[in-house]
Design brief:
Blueprint (H helix, E strand, L loop, with lengths): L5 H21 L5 H12 L5 E2 H8 L3 H13 L3 E6 L2 E9 L1 H5 L1 H15 L5 H15 L2
Antiparallel strand pairs: 1-3, 2-3
Helix pairs in contact: 1-6
Length: about 140
């Protein structure tokens, strides 16, 4: 069966990427979903990320985001604190453990990127990023 539909290929590529990434993250007891939340938090100003920011950025539902954060909290990577500007919302904060592992975990991003794109040339990787960004309107 020759698949030439963008939506199907993008979904299949995402699933294949997770298959490659999960074993790399396994030794850290993290999933791809948990890792991407940590990566977002590492790149944001300290104690500035609201739950809704994660939901919007990753197009995730509120329950899915809560489930991931609960697991990260149990593992000692994050905590939720009251938002000083809005008592109804919570800020997702990294713990000292997460900051101590930041460099090591961020380096995993490069390892996973290389593993996921190993069949592409540097130009093809650059083109793929550009095309996906264009498709997503970013």
């Amino acid at each position: 069966m020759n698949v030439n539909k963008v939506a199907i290929l993008v979904k299949k590529a995402a699933l294949e990427a997770e298959k490659v990434q999960n074993p790399i993250l396994q030794s850290y007891d993290l999933t791809v979903s948990q890792y991407k939340i940590l990566k977002y938090l590492y790149n944001a100003p300290k104690d500035s990320v609201r739950l809704v920011d994660l939901e919007v950025f990753y197009s995730m539902t509120h329950p899915a985001t809560i489930d991931i954060l609960k697991l990260l909290e149990r593992k000692g990577f994050t905590r939720r604190i009251a938002n000083p500007e809005d008592g109804r919302s919570r800020i997702v904060s990294l713990t000292e453990k997460a900051y101590q592992m930041q460099s090591e975990l961020e380096n995993l991003g490069d390892v996973m990127e290389e593993a996921v794109t190993k069949n592409l040339t540097a130009k093809e990787r650059k083109d793929l990023v550009r095309l996906l960004q264009k498709m997503l309107g970013i």
